[in-house]
Amino acid sequence: MKLVRALIIASHPVPSIAVTAIATLLAAEAAPPGFGARPLVLVGLAVLAGQLSVGWSNDAVDADRDTAAGRTDKPAATGQIGARALWLGAGIAATATLTLAAALGPVSLAIDAAMTAVAWSYNLGLKSTVWSGACYAVAFGLLLSFAASALPGAPLATWSVTLAAALLGLGAHFANVLPDLAADERNGVRGLPQRVAARYGPGATRGAALALLLAASVLLLVGASPGRRWVAVAGLGCAVVLAAVGALGRGRLPFLAAIGIAGLDAVLVAAGVEALTAGPHVAGALG
């Protein structure tokens, strides 16, 4: 049981479940009447397996650094699980996500392979480079096309909802590092948000997080379907209030406000305020 508990904690369960739920809900909402449950189940399982592989490989890579930093929230740092076990779990999960995606079709497999490659590249070194933000933007943007690829004709997600998701991912990346900027500086983690903070100050990283997440909210409103525009308007209004709190607040308030906007944007995406696809346009190109 201790091993299972350690694996669950190391999987970063909250974001993993949230990302899985968003992808599955979007695919279900965009599915035509009479669409079977099998593709939706495969989407959910594939995304969950992918998230597990990312979480476990992340903690495996950071095991020594987290131990040195005294991270009591990391099972590998407290001796509850070893890096070797995390690497094994990550490898199994990565194989599982690609296998499940292949069951959906070649388009789904290609998108899932790209998402997995980007996420693993981040864990294996890009997190400490200027390309860290691109990893988040690409992975979040591809997620919606993966959900759409399970539908008849394997369509891609529309450009507007893809861009909104990319902005959400990039903004979440900036928001996520806000409490750890000082620790990241000591440990040599110099991703895009940390570089912005080093050059322009922590306030610039906070401002970038809020601006990116607000931009995602605005884009979702612009592309919202007429029947759900009021949901997007309400979401944007709440996001503006949170942005003001984040801009004026101190301590952990800016971080909490940014995470709140990210959560709102995620809910708007999952609620389908904007159409996921514009119709099948991939299958024909593939013959």
Query: What's the order of the H and E elements?
Result: HHHHHHHHHHHHHH
Low-pLDDT residue intervals, each spanning 5 or more residues: 280-287
Top CATH class: Mainly Alpha
| Counted beta strands | 0
Summing up helix and strand content along with how strands pair, one would put the structural category as mainly alpha
Number of domains: 1
Principal-axes shape call: globular
Biggest sheet, in brief?
Answer: none
The average pLDDT value, as a whole number, equals: 89
Query: Architecture, CATH level 2?
Result: Orthogonal Bundle
For the record, what is the CATH homologous superfamily label? UbiA prenyltransferase
Through-space gap between termini: 49 Å
Beta-strand percentage? under 5%
State the CATH topology.
Answer: Tetracycline Repressor, domain 2
With helices defined by DSSP (H or I, 4 residues minimum), what is the helix count? 14
Please tell me how large the radius of gyration is: 19 Å
- Measured as a percent range, the helix fraction is over 70%
